[in-house]
Input
Amino acid sequence: MIDGSGRAAFPPAPTGLGALSATEIMAGYRRKAFTPRDVVDDTIAALKATDEACNAVVTPMYEQARAEADRLTKEMRAGDARGPLAGVPVTIKDLVFVAGVPAYAGSPMNTAFVPDADAAVVSALKASGAIITCKTTTCESGYKLTADSPVTGVTRNPWNPGRTSGGSSGGAAAAVAAGCGPIAIGTDGVGSIRVPSSFCGVFGFKPTFGLVPRSPGFSPPSWASLAHTGPITRTVADAALTLEIIAAYDLRDAASLPVSARRFDTDAGRLDGIRIGASADLGYAAVSPDVCAAFGKALAILDSWGAQVTMDGPGLDPGILEHTLKPIAFTEQAAAVATKTTADLASSEADYRNIVSAGRRYSGTDYIEASYRRGQARSAFVKLFERVDALVTPTVAVTAFEAGQIGVGKIDGREVDPHLGWSPFTWPINLAGLPAATLPCGFDRDGMPIGLQVIAPWLDEPTIFRIAAAFEQAQPWAKFWPRVALR
Output
């Protein structure tokens, strides 16, 4: 995998233990090559360096992590350590509750809030033996696709700190990309796992809506019908392992799906028999030339591995952003702060206040009509998946833009909505509640990562993992490292 200029020169891999994959860390423990304390110390060093360069950490939990690592080290020496992720460092996005740790959610309104309960995903990770090292940055209430907030400032990209990390799980993706532990937990309402993972050159997975419970802690309850929780990792195997642990039925979450425990096969093999639909623009999107070129090369790889690739897509309404997503997303964002006054919102970002104001202007009828159009979009995907087993698109229409900007307003000469128009491939998938992943598929002419999005029918995560594992085998992206990584 090379960048758009044909260059293949990348920095060497970091040497710290925090840069290892979860499967490599677990194998090292079995060999007694190192201890959880060794791994956590190296991970904390990497987090401190990355935070200084990229601003990825909101709340360090370093002393708690060291204490837990010491406990697990003793258990491992005694042969008592248990759990599929015992001793593996994990970061948690600051929208997700960790009991006793502040959950600012990027909002000045939450600076005094400390939850007294773990989110279900955090409880599952703790039970697996994972060690939580910190909370990572997000934008205010997760409302936009960068991780910049009035609480933490601008989060930057480890490939080039002058560029954005993307968001809203930007700190999570930046930390994984820079070798600060193998697993991060992010959330995704309109692309907030996939956009930063694409921009930072890592693997991000948004499972089927409801597969991973959000209760009892997810702050705030914005994007109520859109938000998913999932893993960000450097490898497909690590994401599969994490999803096996955090996917569960939880009665406290009304959207939680009553499905039994699942196992995901990530052994790479040919894709013979898999029908893949491909769309470079979903029929309406403006896309940068570099992204289009990388997408074409990715399709050729899938074809060479035996997939039946055809140009096909769901045929969505070109007005889906204005007439479907915005009435739903903006209304749900406004509902999340319904009890807040103008004075309460005074310290929020102007763009955030504008979205809340727009959401308050939509009527109940507007929301119901948008929900009807959402059903039509869902039906379009149902029909598509009668013809194909999976759909691939670019993940984002552009690569990471200047840090501190909310987005871009023009792509290849075409004007786009600066908030959401440059990510036209992610939010339709949230409207449908489908599982989707982004995997690195190349670099632009400036050496910034480009992502390929893989989408499958509801609860068909195994097909995504099969395609991603094959692509990872063909193009092993994890060997490429950004310039900001502790070496």
User: Anything to note?
Assistant: Residues 1-8 have pLDDT under 50 and may be disordered.
